[in-house]
Amino acid sequence: MLKVLGAVLILMATSKIGFDSARQLRKRPRQIQELRSGLAILKTEINYGTRPLAEAFERIAEASSGELKPVFLEASRNLKSSDGKSTYECLKSAIEEKWKKTVMGEEEKVIVLKLCQVLGSSNRWDQLHHLDLAQENLQMEENKAREEQETYEKMVKTLGVLSGALLVILMF
Predict the structure, then answer these.
(1) How far apart are CA 18 and CA 41, in angstroms?
(2) N-terminal to C-terminal alpha carbon distance within the chain
(3) Distance CA 57, CA 39 (A)
(4) Please, which residues have CB within 8 angstroms of residue 113's CB and are 6 or more apart in sequence?
(5) What is the 3-state secondary structure (H, E, C) of the chain?
(6) N or C terminus of the chain with fewer C-beta within 10 Å?
(7) Residue 102 in 3-state DSSP?
(8) Of 172, 164, 171, the residue nearest 12 (C-alpha)
(9) pLDDT of 28 higher than 90
(10) Contact of 27 with 146, CB cutoff 8 Å
């Protein structure tokens, strides 16, 4: 009886690991899309708005609903209480602190950090140009993430279940 219970628990645990991995593959394109939407709002704020950058990030956070909301809120807080830090340092610390809670990869982080180097330190047109570049690069990363999702999502789920089944077979 205990062996059967152990086998069921092992099978459930490995299946959960597989399904969690598949969920992360599914979330990544959505989060990249959310980031692109946030950058579109920022572009509008820079192009037409007169709000300071901290308020613009606060507005982006209000429009966000997912895992990126804390990143934008932290950026806004850091910019409001900059304590002599540059805009880049404020944004970088927010990204470094909150990025771990997203499922996005290092590629997206590098794109955003490159954009942050320009925000608040160059003229409006240069910032808009870099926002366009960042959005294009993020679009390419989103396409890659969607391809990875299509390729690996089902495989990861199946691998989780089958690895559990293999462990159960090896135990008996």
Answers:
(1) 35
(2) 13
(3) 10
(4) 92, 95
(5) CHHHHHHHHHHHHHHHHHHHHHHHHHHHHHHHHHHHHHHHHHHHHHHHCCCCHHHHHHHHHHHCCCCCHHHHHHHHHHHHCCCCCCHHHHHHHHHHHHHHHCCCCHHHHHHHHHHHHHCCCCCHHHHHHHHHHHHHHHHHHHHHHHHHHHHHHHHHHHHHHHHHHHHHHHHC
(6) N
(7) coil
(8) 164
(9) yes
(10) no
AA letter at 76: S
Is 49 a residue whose pLDDT tops 80? no
Residue 1 pLDDT exceeds 80: yes
| Mean pLDDT computed over 143-155 | 95
Q: Are 90 and 82 in contact (CB under 8 A)?
A: yes
Instruction: Say what the pLDDT of residue 131 is.
Output: 94
Average pLDDT over residues 14-18: 96
Q: Is this prediction's pTM over 0.85?
A: yes
Q: Mean pLDDT, the chain, as a whole number? A: 91
Per residue in 125-140, pLDDT (tens digit) is 999 999 999 999 999 9
